[in-house]
Design a protein that fits this description.
about 450 residues, mainly alpha, two-stranded antiparallel sheet, globular
Length: about 450
């Protein structure tokens, strides 16, 4: 009877903890642990930070967002900064990734739930060789971060003592690859706006972390001759990434050429435009004051942040593939075609339906949280004088949802309710609004009734 009790308990709890719920609870548990560590006195440079700020920054780190209510470089001690670094490193790759690789190396078999979580997180199609792929994820992460650290160390060594330069290089390289955007500098990377090595290194790390690990894996396999061609998923990601970077940079330059970049050199204009086109979709580093940008540029950045990174990456947003499928679906409907065809392949309708649902759920989530920020604003100004809050709150919300981390400078001024709202949207943006909703719903087989037409459009 005693031996049977654990088996009964396991049988009872197993249906309650589905792979999706385990995935969500893993992030939630890491956030709570990070909150406790950041709240303890050893994490603060002086005294201790407020619990709401500890919760906010732990969520921002685990969800690889980068929004901060405190000056990370000044308010946190070295142990606090190291805690933050570990949080966004684990948050970027996921707890399950580390556990699968660790137990796999120890000889333990991968469970069905672990396999399902890994496949839904990193892979576009089921594979049998999950463990080699996961080993690739871990290995490539540390190799890329190591290379980025080396390049940044070479640059920072001109400004700081060797030990401090190495620490700054490690922190910023890990933050960039995990698309987090946390910086130890009070003004982020503004002091390096004209520096080619810093800009190109950070951009390279952001792009490599944002395209997704399976894309890295396939490209490396093609280069090594293991496979002959990349998948449709990989093609869409690479093409959309290039298009969005080019279009974003062009828009940034055109919208700012008579404003922020009016007296800037070609080098400054090129680097600033390219850097923020890359950073706006996934990371959140900035080399200019975001609050000084024109309205047109702010709108362009909001669009880029909402699209976000690619599936299976460390970034958020609706993802490049969802945006691409939506564009192709509209284009095919204009041409009178029911099916969506790309690269001589037909995209399944269930994938298209999921893409539409993701876009709608994401937009709805952004509207809800923006409304909460507006309703609980502390502004005592008249409506016309406080109109700027709408743009600032919308920008902040989309940045949090896309796990980007760019801000117009209002994060530290949010009240408790507003911070909680941003925490919720950061979490939803990292795990996915649909994933969060479906995790606690009970699937039921629906009934099919007689069809009847409804006018739309």
């Amino acid at each position: 009877m005693i031996a049977a009790s654990p088996m009964r308990l396991k049988a009872f709890l197993s249906p309650l903890f589905s792979p999706t719920r385990i995935f969500i609870l893993g992030f939630a548990g890491l956030i709570l642990l990070g909150t406790l560590l950041l709240w303890l006195p050893f994490s603060a440079a002086e005294g201790h930070i407020a619990f709401i700020d500890a919760l906010f920054n732990a969520t921002s780190a685990v969800c690889v967002t980068g929004l901060a209510t405190i000056d990370v470089g000044k308010a946190l001690s070295f142990p606090g900064q190291l805690t933050l670094l570990i949080l966004f490193q684990i948050g970027g790759l996921g707890i399950i990734t580390f556990s699968v690789v660790f137990f796999g190396m120890m000889g333990r078999r991968i469970t069905f739930k672990e396999r399902e979580i890994v496949q839904s997180t990193f892979l576009h199609t089921p594979r049998r060789d999950i463990l080699p792929v996961m080993k690739w994820v871990i290995l490539s992460t540390f190799v890329i971060e190591g290379l980025g650290t080396l390049l940044l160390f070479l640059r920072f060594s001109f400004d700081f003592p060797p030990a401090h330069a190495l620490y700054q290089a490690v922190f910023h390289a890990v933050s960039a690859f995990n698309n987090c955007g946390y910086s130890l500098f009070s003004n982020n990377l503004v002091n390096y706006r004209d520096d080619w090595m810093t800009n190109l290194t950070i951009m390279g790390l952001i792009v490599l972390g944002g395209i997704g690990f399976i894309v890295q894996y396939e490209v490396a396999a093609v280069i090594r001759g293991r496979i002959k061609k990349i998948s449709i998923h990989c093609r869409i990601v690479l093409i959309m990434t290039g298009v969005l970077i080019a279009c974003g940079a062009a828009c940034f330059y055109v919208f700012e050429m008579n404003s922020l970049l009016r007296d800037a050199s070609f080098q400054t204009s090129f680097l600033a435009s390219s850097f923020h086109s890359v950073s706006a979709r996934t990371s959140g580093f900035n080399t200019v004051d975001i609050g000084r940008l024109t309205n047109a540029t702010i709108l362009a950045l909001i669009i880029l942040m909402f699209i976000g990174a690619s599936p299976g990456s460390t970034g958020g947003g609706i993802k490049t593939t969802s945006f691409a499928l939506l564009i192709f679906m509209i284009w095919n409907r204009i041409k009178g075609q029911e099916e969506v065809n790309m690269f001589n392949r037909t995209i399944p309708k269930e994938i298209l339906s999921r893409a539409i649902s993701i876009v709608f759920a994401s937009a709805f989530s952004v509207c809800i949280v923006t409304s909460i920020l507006l309703l609980f604003a502390d502004a005592a100004e008249a409506p016309l004088q406080s109109r700027h809050l709408f743009v600032e709150y919308l920008f902040e919300t989309v940045s949090a949802f896309g796990t980007v981390g760019l801000s117009m400078g209002i994060t530290a001024n949010l009240n408790v309710i507003q911070k909680l709202a941003i925490i919720m949207i950061m979490f939803a943006g990292r795990v996915g609004p649909l994933t969060l909703a479906f995790a606690w719903s009970t699937p039921r087989k629906g009934l099919t009734y007689a069809e009847e037409q409804v006018m739309v459009g």
